[in-house]
Amino acid sequence: MLPMLPPSDTRPPLSPRPALPIAALALALALAGCAGGPQDNLSLVPARLDQQTRQDGLFTQPVKWSRERPGCQGECPKLTVDSLAFPGHPRLTELVDHALAAMTWVDAQNAAPYDTLAGFEAYYWKTAESRDEVQLTARTRYRNERLTVVELDAAQYRTGMAHGMTGSQLLNWDNAAEKALTIDNLLAPGARPAFDAALRAEHARWLDQHADAIDNRDTFDRMWPFAPSDNVGLTDLGVLVKYQPYEIAPYAWGQPELLIPYEHLRGVLRPQFLPPRT
């Protein structure tokens, strides 16, 4: 879960902001003639637990700081970053930086005037009002010697807004090819309907597990119907799908996570993204 903003008597709770796609950022960083993907018979997901495989994964260093606007006195805007760098892997480090910066921009009609966290910070100090606050977070959700899965989170409160804004994005990184993997890279050709069907079945099981919290299932299903999602991450147990608040459930349910076990995705995922049979 994304860390919440400090409590305040006058600030309303954060409400959702749709996750921002990062495929375009990945393509922008990719070099022409980049090495191709792995062979189909080489599994990128070993049949071991995350606690074991993360020891073989990319080394990370924290990028962590919290600042108020320079020279400000009294009530001041605040910017907090709790991110990661990947020493020896500048393209992944840059992608995380670019993606977090992009997640702060909410104007769909115009391009952001910055594309890095440093650029966003400079812009933010020029435009932020006294009670504005932004939190940007990156953490690894799964890693092994071939794959790195990073979760990116952004939370913003801007003075005068009725609600804050939040967003979450999962990034799957191929360590050898040095490129981001979109859901189209993960799925076998023509397998999107089968993936959505597997996700729908997991969604139904998830609702059954929370039956005690639902007063009327028919009303709940009308208000919070199933929705497909591209926000996916590979793990040692299956494909994780993460939703935004309000996307498939009330705000109080937070950011729901559904896990589709790999045994339900054979023939759906490309072979290299399935663990070997044991």
UniProtKB/TrEMBL annotation:
It holds the Pfam family DUF3298. Gene3D superfamilies: Fervidobacterium nodosum Rt17-B1 like, Heat-shock cognate protein, ATPase. Coiled coil: none annotated. InterPro entries: DUF3298 (IPR021729), PdaC/RsiV-like_sf (IPR037126). It comes from the Bacteria. Residues 184-263 form the DUF3298 domain. This is DUF3298 domain-containing protein.
